[in-house]
C-alpha cells in the first residue's frame, strides 16, 4: 500500500471536549458539595439559561429526548393525537411521539435545505394534529414565523384536550433545538422562538454537561409558568 493511499489508517478524534482547568475545578467542587444530581448548581443553570434565552422558566433534565417528551406530556398529548415532524433528523424527534402513544406524521425537508417543508406541514394538518416538531438542524433555527402563520390559519381544525391546549387555542410548536443553543433568528434567541424548545447538552453539542438537556417555553396567556415548571418536576420523576 502506498503511503499516500486514502486507505492509510488514521486516528480521528470523536467530539474532543474543550475542557480547561476551570471546568475540572467546577466538577470537583460539585462532587465535594454532595450534590451529584439535581441540586443548587442545576437550579442556577436553569435560571441563567432562562435569563440568557429570554424566557421566564427553564427545566434541566437528563437529555433533549426527555425534554421533548415532557413537553408533549405537559400538553396532554396521547393516543388519538397526531404530531408532525421532519423525516430528516435524529430518531428522538419522532420517538418521543411514540413514547406518549400519539401518531407520528413525517414530512420531508425543503428542497435544497434541511428545514422542515412548510407546505407539506400545512397539508398534513388534520383535526387530530396537536403539535409540530421542527428541527433546528446544524444549529440553524427554522422559520417559526411561517409555522405560526400556518397553525393560526388552521385554528378552526384544532380540538384541545387539556387546559394548556385550550389556553393556546392552536397547534403547539415544539422545537427540537438540540443543535441550536445560542443561535438566533430575526434577533430572537432559540429557546424563545417556539412554544416549547428542547436542548441537548450531549458531549458533541456546543455546550455540554456530558449528558443532559434543557426545556424552555414561552409564557402562555392564562397559564402560570410556575405551574408548568412544577408539573415538569413531577413528570420527570415518573418517566
Q: Main sheet, how many strands, which sense, barrel? A: 7 strands, mixed
Helix and strand composition category = alpha/beta
User: What fraction of residues sit in β-strands?
Assistant: 15-25%
Query: Mean pLDDT, rounded to whole units?
Result: 92
Shape, principal axes of CA atoms: globular
Tell me the number of helical segments per DSSP (H or I, 4 or more residues long).
8
Rg measurement, Å: 19 Å
Q: Termini distance?
A: 53 Å
Strand order of the largest sheet: 1-9-8-5-4-2-3
Percentage of residues in helical conformation: 25-40%
H-E order? HHEHEHEHEHHEEEEEH
pLDDT < 50 stretches? none
Query: In total, how many beta strands?
Result: 9
Oligomeric form of this entry? Answer: single chain
Amino acid at each position: 500500500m502506498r503511503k499516500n493511499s486514502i486507505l492509510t489508517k488514521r486516528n480521528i478524534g470523536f467530539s474532543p471536549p474543550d475542557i480547561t482547568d476551570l471546568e475540572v475545578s467546577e466538577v470537583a467542587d460539585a462532587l465535594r458539595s454532595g450534590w451529584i444530581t439535581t441540586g443548587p448548581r442545576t437550579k442556577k443553570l436553569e435560571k441563567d439559561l432562562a435569563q440568557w434565552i429570554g424566557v421566564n422558566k427553564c427545566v434541566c433534565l437528563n437529555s433533549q429526548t426527555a425534554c421533548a417528551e415532557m413537553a408533549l406530556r405537559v400538553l396532554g398529548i396521547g393516543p388519538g393525537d397526531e404530531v408532525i415532524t421532519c423525516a430528516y433528523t435524529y430518531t428522538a424527534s419522532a420517538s418521543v411521539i411514540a413514547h406518549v402513544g400519539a401518531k407520528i406524521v413525517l414530512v420531508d425537508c425543503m428542497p435544497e435545505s434541511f428545514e422542515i417543508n412548510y407546505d407539506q406541514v400545512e397539508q398534513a394538518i388534520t383535526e387530530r394534529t396537536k403539535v409540530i416538531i421542527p428541527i433546528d438542524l446544524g444549529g440553524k433555527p427554522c422559520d417559526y414565523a411561517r409555522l405560526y402563520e400556518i397553525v393560526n390559519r388552521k385554528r378552526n381544525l384544532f380540538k384541545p384536550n387539556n387546559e394548556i391546549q385550550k389556553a393556546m387555542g392552536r397547534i403547539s410548536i415544539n422545537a427540537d433545538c438540540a443543535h441550536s443553543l445560542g443561535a438566533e433568528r430575526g434577533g430572537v434567541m432559540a429557546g424563545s422562538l417556539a412554544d416549547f424548545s428542547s436542548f441537548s447538552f450531549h458531549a458533541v453539542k456546543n455546550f455540554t454537561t456530558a449528558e443532559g438537556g434543557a426545556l424552555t417555553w414561552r409564557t402562555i396567556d392564562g397559564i402560570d409558568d410556575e405551574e408548568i415548571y412544577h408539573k415538569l418536576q413531577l413528570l420527570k420523576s415518573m418517566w
